[in-house]
C-alpha cells in the first residue's frame, strides 16, 4: 500500500476582518453620516468673536468641526478654543484637557437644547474666563485677520 501524502496547509489566507463590532454599528455610522450630510447646509459653518474678549485666545473665527461633543456640533478656532454644548447649555472653552476647561457659559437668551448656539446668547465668565466676555456673531470681523 501506498502512504498518503500530507495535505499542504496554506497559512497566507487571512480570516475575515470586520471594521465594526457588529452589523448595527456599521448602520449607525452610516445613519450618522447621512444625518450630518443632510443637515450640513443648515448648520452654521463659522462663528466669529470680534470683540476685545478678556482672553485673546477666544477671539477669531470658529469653524465647524467634523467631531461632535455630547451629540452636538462643535466649532474650534486657531488657538484651540471650542464652542460646544453640554446638556442644554452652550460653552466656549478647551475640550483637550480632562476635565474640559470652560471659559464661558451661555446664561441669557441662549437657546437650550438647540443644535447650535444663538448669536443673541450672553455668556458669563467662569473661573477660566476673563471679562469682557466673547460675543458670537455669524458676520466676519471687519478689518481682516485678527
How would you sum up this structure, described in words?
- This protein is mainly beta and 146 residues long.
- The protein has one helix and eight strands.
- An eight-stranded antiparallel sheet has the order 7-6-5-4-3-2-1-8, with no helix packed on it.
- A hairpin with a 6-residue loop joins β5 and β6.
- The chain starts with 22 loop residues before the first helix and ends in a 9-residue tail after the last strand.
- The relative contact order is 0.16.
What sequence of helices (H) and strands (E) makes up the elements? HEEEEEEEE
Structural class: mainly beta
Distance between the termini: 91 Å
Give the low-pLDDT segments: 12-20
For the biggest sheet, the summary is: 8 strands, antiparallel
Rg is 24 Å
Beta strand count: 8
Percent helix, as a range, is 10-25%
Number of helices: 1
Core attributes:
mainly beta; 146 residues
Task: Summarize the helices and strands and which ones pair or pack.
Layout (H helix, E strand, L loop, with lengths): L22 H17 L6 E4 L10 E10 L2 E5 L5 E5 L2 E6 L6 E8 L13 E4 L10 E2 L9
Antiparallel strand pairs: 1-2, 1-8, 2-3, 3-4, 4-5, 5-6, 6-7
Amino acid at each position: 500500500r501506498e502512504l498518503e501524502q500530507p495535505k499542504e496547509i496554506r497559512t497566507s489566507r487571512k480570516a475575515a476582518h470586520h471594521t465594526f463590532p457588529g452589523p448595527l454599528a456599521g448602520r449607525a455610522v452610516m445613519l450618522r453620516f447621512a444625518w450630518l450630510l443632510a443637515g450640513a447646509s443648515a448648520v452654521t459653518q463659522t462663528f466669529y468673536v470680534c470683540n476685545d474678549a478678556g482672553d485673546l485666545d477666544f477671539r477669531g473665527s470658529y469653524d465647524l468641526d467634523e467631531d461632535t461633543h455630547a451629540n452636538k456640533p462643535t466649532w474650534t478656532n486657531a488657538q484651540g478654543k471650542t464652542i460646544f454644548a453640554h446638556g442644554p447649555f452652550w460653552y466656549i472653552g478647551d475640550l483637550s484637557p480632562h476635565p474640559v476647561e470652560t471659559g464661558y457659559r451661555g446664561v441669557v437668551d441662549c437657546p437650550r437644547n438647540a443644535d447650535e448656539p444663538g448669536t443673541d446668547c450672553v455668556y458669563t465668565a467662569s473661573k477660566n474666563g476673563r471679562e469682557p466676555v466673547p460675543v458670537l456673531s455669524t458676520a466676519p470681523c471687519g478689518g481682516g485677520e485678527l
